[in-house]
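Lab meeting notes turned into a lecture example. A postdoc, R.K., suggested we walk through two folding results consecutively so the class can see how the record format repeats. The first protein's sequence and structure tokens come next.
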Amino acid sequence: MLHTRTTAAERRRAFRTQLASGRLLSMPGAINPLSVRLIQDTGFDAAYLSGAVLAADLGLPDIGLTTSTEIAARAQQHTRVTDLPVLIDADTGFGQPMNAARTVQLMEDAGLAGLHLEDQINPKRCGHLDGKSVAPRAEMVRRIRAAVDARRDPDFLLMARTDARSVEGLDAAIDRAKAYVDAGADAIFPEALAGEAEFETFRKAVDVPLLANLTEFGRTPLLNTRTLENLGFNIALYPVTLLRIAMGAVEDGLRTIAADGTQESLLPHMQTRSRLYELLGYEQYATFDSAVFDFTLPPGT
């Protein structure tokens, strides 16, 4: 009720333990704080906050227009209501290495379990689109080192994302990943790998936890969890899936209301009032309130 029962430090340690277990973690991307409660209630291991989703929530494209403080504030609203570790997309760190350092501390203060920084340059774009540019390797290494130096909680996970596969090729992406690990990255997010063979090659070359981005309509095939686990990956990420499901349903619902003049045919597709109240913990709030006011004031007070 009101907030999670665990501390950020506990969730960070739990995330580290999960990654060290060798078991594949499934990580859906939340679209709002209520959805992260649902992710937890459904039994997932961790939750994710996508930069594309956070930008879309503001009606903006994912091209680096959001700010670190906007993202941190939104993140804190999510971490307040879940006991799951939450990983966030911190884009390029929102500027130069000094900005990346500040971003790390903002995200620590927001209660997150970790973040990932990418090696694109602005204006950045979705990792599965053409026309990307990547920063020089040395510049990204400085970005990572600044993030490592700024970290106050050693359990806060610093993941490096490389978009080099689509720009410079697989071998260059692997070389960059190794350099980023040497600079202090705890894990690697190889963006836009093209198939199982590339996943396997990356796993053999890089000896830290690896994330597989299973975004829809992209360059990467939608591999199932058994395949990813056999390939030795540590995280199966579904960054924008819930947003796409939700917005598709919203658009269909609006068209139905406009055409029919009533929402009655949509009722079977809606979350019920009772389920919503269950997620919100309505009953616990009522119990708490009655427990606080279960006394009688003395006369005259």
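The second example is placed directly after the first for contrast:
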Amino acid sequence: MILPKAIFPLAASLLFSGLFAAPALASDPPEVVVSIKPVHSLVAAIMQGVGTPDLIVDGAASPHTYALKPSNARALEGAKVVFWVGPGMEAFLEKPLSALGSNALVVELDKAPGIAKLKFRQGGAFEADDDGDEPAADAGDSQDHDDGHGQFDTHLWLDPHNAKAMTAEITTTLVAADPANALTYEANQKALDDKLDALDTEIASTVAPVKNKPFIVFHDAYQYFERRYGVHVAGSITVSPESIPGAERVAEIHGKVADLGATCVFAEPQFEPKLVNVVIEGTSAKSGVLDPEAATLPQGPDLYFDLMRNIANSLKTCLS
């Protein structure tokens, strides 16, 4: 059958519209930037199958001492969504986010519903009045002791219940910013929550044999892990790694190690370990390494689980 000439323009129009209309229906995910590795891991897990978030504090760098790079500034300028813990953790980001991230939705995860917060401890040796033997707060019960800027411990992710509160806020944000991929984000959150519950049970089992043995950490970053799992952190060499402790504080910790018979003193990979050697000198304590900010781990959705397992296994190995 021979088609009338008038049909050809119509057929050609339909053909070309079919060829070129499909890409217009595709939805590109928003540009997402995340401050630090543990949070990036959670965001990356929620975004699996959709896209990959950018990370600011990469490699072995620490948010406590980080200086923003030009590449970071460019990423912030192009971002549609930025996730960070908050100014108490990533102080270096506070001004850049105001200046560079004005077009982005900036999400401060320390304000996520359900997050449990704990006050900073001030002393090098933690005494009973610090409530060190209390059980961990439930993630649904917010213990928000923040009386102002930087008044609470911001290593929130070291309790998987806080990680679950973060993932809920991350998912809500991404669904609102990118509704075309909402089903994927929500399915990923459900799978991630199940994995976090299983991890919580696993960590509790790993540290159970050594939970009553006292140990000293380099800086006071482990309250959330301590409260969740009942391990006995007897003190820290320094409250904040930006501050080098004086001779009096080091002597105090050295005495604490000797008095308690602390089995281990833990360094961290980003910071000078010489102080740890001074603290354990002349005692029977061993040294180990804990990595609360995942300095030694490659970024990605599995990092959070590796971070938590590494802490638990390091405690068990050194304290056994």
